[in-house]
Specification:
Elements (H helix, E strand, L loop, with lengths): L4 E4 L2 E4 L2 E2 L1 H7 L3 E5 H15 L5 E5 L6 H9 L3 E4 L2 H9 L7 E3 L6 H10 L3 E4 L2 H13 L4 E6 L25 H9 L7 E7 L10 H14 L7 E3 L17 H8 L7 E4 L3 H4 L3 E13 L2 E6 L8 H5 L5 E3 L8 E6 L8 E8 L7 E4 L21 E5 L2 E6 L4 H5 L4
Parallel strand pairs: 4-19, 5-6, 5-12, 6-7, 7-8, 8-9, 9-10, 10-11, 11-12, 14-16
Antiparallel strand pairs: 1-2, 2-3, 4-13, 13-14, 13-18, 15-18, 16-17, 19-20
The structure holds ligand LLP.
The site of ligand LLP has 21 residues, from helix 10 and helix 11.
């Protein structure tokens, strides 16, 4: 919990709103986001990286809700988009094309055309073949396009294996020799201005040293080319999902990088660090059953609303809306989906609960709703934005009609 989510008068609040006041009329499951926390997180990144003159592009894959993007846009931050759909969303939220970076290992021709026609500020290129295609498209349009080459530095990031991207076996980026070749043969791409190198080595990075290694390698490669002086170091700033964990703050990354960055323009692409701890998922207890010595709390939220526990073994704290008065006992919190991996928490500690009691799954503002699915024909949940004492539904709950509309 943090200063945006706290118990007061025996019940859980988000900013100036008791969460029961949202759950009651809107129903559960429902995502709730705190505007104050998002703005605080952006300020923290700006304070850390501002002195380095860094520009911030929020990685909107973490949470692409339009109203939230509007808040982020007003904070003066650009975005990192990975599909035409994400670029379109960013535009709808009012983000100027010049503040959009377009990344991705498999951009289609149509997506690249859309990006050029929209005038996005940067394209992060991930292969020689993509360079060739982009050159053709830019030439057709008589456009000069600013690009960064995404380096695969071959470093092992200290993180979960599913979210590491900078190691030799990963599909991402361009290996150093090939990247050096592209730079040496820049004349082959007269419509592409190679202004920088991009090195995102993974998400939820638990140490700064691998980032530093990657940055040094990028600088070595760029060194002979005096106009390649932008380094986009990606995202990956970690979030504490467990209060007992110590993880490097954004300021520690900035301090470690500062000595090597003289003369370089820096870009960062934080996703998780902007939104993770600004969101929670409200769920209600359906049934409680004891079985083979285990207490199962079956709730109306599941892996279709929050995939991270099932996909990564991610652990999100779960707490009751009513502040516990009784002793906490171990519980396995599960959803209704017909999959054994549909476990929201295998090791929650909860008071004795009954059907209808509500709980909050914490720190789910990043990679929560964006990874939700309709598996088991489940309807994706609504999203609520809280700002002080105001709250509003910024995306409604899906209906059966929404799901069936596309089928003949
Ligand atoms: N830049 C690039 C090129 C990326 O691939 C990513 C995330 C980011 C920035 C933002 O990283 P962040 O600051 O959020 O760590 N679904 C996973 C995370 C996947 C991250 C994918 N790329 C999860 O739930 O943990």
């Amino acid at each position: 919990m943090n200063e945006s989510f706290f118990y007061r008068g025996g019940t859980l609040w988000c900013e100036g709103v008791p969460l029961e006041a949202i759950a009651e009329p809107v129903g559960t499951p429902v995502y709730v986001y705190s505007v104050a926390r998002v703005l605080r997180n952006i300020r923290r990144l700006q304070t850390a990286f501002g002195p380095l003159g860094a520009s911030i592009h929020y990685s909107l894959k973490a949470n692409a809700n339009l109203a939230l993007l509007g808040v982020i846009n007003e904070a003066g931050v650009g975005v990192d988009a990975v599909s035409a759909g994400e670029i379109a969303r960013a535009r709808l939220a009012g983000i100027p094309p010049s503040r959009i970076v377009f990344a991705g290992v498999g951009k289609t021709r149509a997506e690249l055309e859309y990006a050029l026609d929209t005038g996005v500020g940067w394209i992060n290129v991930e292969s020689q073949a993509e360079m060739a295609l982009l050159e053709t498209l830019a030439a057709d349009r008589r456009q000069i396009v600013t690009v960064a080459l995404r380096l695969n530095p071959g470093v092992e990031a200290a993180t979960h294996r599913h979210i590491a991207t900078g190691h030799a076996g990963a599909k991402f980026g361009i290996e150093p020799e090939v990247l050096a070749d592209i730079l040496d043969n820049r004349a082959a791409y007269p419509h592409l201005f190679i202004a920088g190198i991009h090195v995102h080595i993974g998400s939820q990075l638990t140490r700064v040293d691998a980032t530093l290694d990657a940055v040094r390698l990028a600088q070595e490669l760029a060194d002979p080319h005096s106009d390649v002086r932008t380094l986009n170091i990606g995202g990956g700033f970690p979030v504490r999902y467990d209060d007992a964990e110590t993880l490097p703050e954004p300021a520690e990354f900035a301090e470690a990088l500062q000595p090597v960055l003289d003369g370089w323009h820096i870009m960062i692409e934080p996703g998780r660090a902007v939104v993770a701890d600004a969101g929670l998922l409200l769920v209600s207890v359906l049934y409680v059953k004891e079985q083979y010595g285990r207490r199962f709390v079956i709730v109306d939220g599941s892996m279709t609303e929050l995939l991270r526990p099932a996909l990564y073994g991610a652990e999100h704290p779960i707490i009751p809306l009513r502040e516990p008065e009784s002793k906490l006992v171990p519980a396995t919190v599960v959803g209704p989906v017909c999959e054994s991996t549909d476990v929201l928490s295998p090791s929650a500690r909860l008071p004795r609960l009954a059907a209808g009691d509500r709980m909050a799954v914490l720190d789910v503002g990043a990679y929560g709703m964006v990874m939700a699915s309709n598996y088991n024909m489940r309807l994706r949940p609504p999203e609520v934005l809280v700002e002080g004492r105001q709250w509003r539904v910024v995306r409604r709950r899906e209906t059966l009609d929404d799901l069936l509309r596309l089928e003949q």
